[in-house]
Amino acid sequence: MTSAPPDGPARFRHILSATAGNTTIGDVAGVRVGVLVVAYNAERTLAGVLDRLPPTFRATVEHVLVCDDASNDATHEIGLAYQATGSLPLTLVRHPRNLGYGGNQKSGYRWAIENGLDVVVLLHGDGQYAPEVIEDLVAPLVDASADAVFGSRMMSKGAARSGGMPLYKFLGNRTLSTAQNALTGLRLTEWHSGYRAYRVDCLSEIPFESYSDGFDFDTEIILGLHEAGKSIVEVPIPTYYGDEICYVNGVSYAKDVLIDVAKFRLGRIGFGHGEGFDQDAYELKMSPHSSHGILLSWLGEKQPTRVLDIGCSDGRFGGLVREQGHHVVGVDLVKHEGVGGRLDEFVEADLNVGLPPETGDGFAVIVAADVLEHTIEPAALLNDMIGRLAPGGSILVSVPNFAHWYPRARVLAGRFDYDQRGLLDRGHVRFFTRRSLERLIADRGLRIERRSVVGSPVEVLDVASRSVVGRASRAAGRVDRFATRVWPTLFGYQFLYELRPN
User: Fold this and answer.
1) What does DSSP assign to residue 152?
2) pTM above 0.70?
3) Of these four, 220, 288, 300, 436, which has the most CB atoms within 10 Å of its CB?
4) Would you say 121 and 34 are in contact if contact means Cβ atoms under 8 Å apart?
5) Which domains can be identified in the chain, with CATH numbers?
6) Which H or E run contains 330?
């Protein structure tokens, strides 16, 4: 049996120890805390791990679930014997077949959701992570200062190596974590700790059931939390390496987690299905080479005036237009949080039935950034916009290019499908090429004052400007912009126009 690592800080422990012996966490802070112990072939360590839970925590924890993932040894029997002692509110589950590391966690998180817990802590049955500091992971969740808390072995300089982490694992951990931070924009000291605690309501808001059943589940759940805008806090934990058996294939694991973060980043650009990485509000693209950047520059050339922002989303783009001195009225199907404070006026309406009368008219500029492709009858919406213009007013539009190489390649390969965002956004009901779009413009009696084309939003990759990823993304952006100038109908990602009625 493994020996216990030294105690870590216990800033939560004093809250519990000051209460009566039969007081629960729910009595102290209205929070029900459970522990998920994932176990596989842990007959030598399981009882010791449970024994090492601090007495204050043992007296207050709501429930402990031990998930035996079809072990080949006596893990199940050891768990039953421990359950019989009655020293913990413990339930033992033995899976009839091995679900994998990720699959085992999924079953435990379903249990936490179904039983109405508020917080669930992931603890490994092999003794690699110190139960003595479990309260330090729970504390930020109890006081609502975080949605997820990760124990990190890398926060204290030198602690990982002095705790016995092999050099090759230390170097691999740091290298992978650096690459994952660069690709995602996160700043975690460690991506690969299995000692974690979550608010259960946050778990219920991310599609963890769709994640991997393997060891890269831990990476995918970080990506899900990040995309959902959840707050992640790290706390230092002691490092302990004993004689436990490692079941992780390091090379395969490294490949899987790098693929996960690369798919995440490509999904943010709009390449690949990106399932689970959706956001209700569309992402503001602030590069001067992006559609939003160019539209803002066009608006910045105009004297302060009345602007109608159609499909304004969360109002972040309109807010920047307002900062230029314009009076901005926004229209969208959903009123996103904060939109009212960013715009001068907001009207909630379905654009498929036309612009509502509440928006008014006499606008000097109407902006329809990535809107026409979302409407069933774009011609009717254009007519509506023309009717709301002041004399001499203009319409600014941006539309994705269906003839871009990516949709072409998907169709040619017989793999056409909708993506979570981007050129094949599943919200698109109309597709345009430059020719079909300009035909629509001419048919509505509009003339083109100026046009532009932007390449793929590679700047989304540039999340760490001094990193290899940042330098590579800028180089890729330069190549893409050159290709867009040479062959705009193939490499152009979006077409932009300023239009006026004839």
Assistant:
1) E
2) no
3) 220
4) yes
5) 13-269 (3.90.550.10), 291-501 (3.40.50.150)
6) strand 327-332
